[in-house]
Amino acid sequence: MKSEYDFSQAEQGKFYHPDAKFHYPIYLEPDVEQFVTKIAENKNIDVQILVNEWLRNNIKFIQSIE
C-alpha cells in the first residue's frame, strides 16, 4: 500500500445513485437452511421464492388478527 495517494483528478460522486436499492443478505442457521433447502428442492423452486412466500403469508396472517 502506498503511503500517499493522489485524488486530485478524482470525480466525487461518480458511483452514487440516489435511487439505488440494496438487498441485504439474510443468514440462516444451518438447521433452518437445511430444512428450507429440502422443501425448496422438493417443490423445484428457489429458496428465496419459498422464504418470501412464507414471509408474505405470515404478514397477511398478522395483519388479519390485528
Automatic annotation (TrEMBL):
Protein name: Uncharacterized protein
Origin organism lineage: Bacteria, Bacillati, Cyanobacteriota, Cyanophyceae, Oscillatoriophycideae
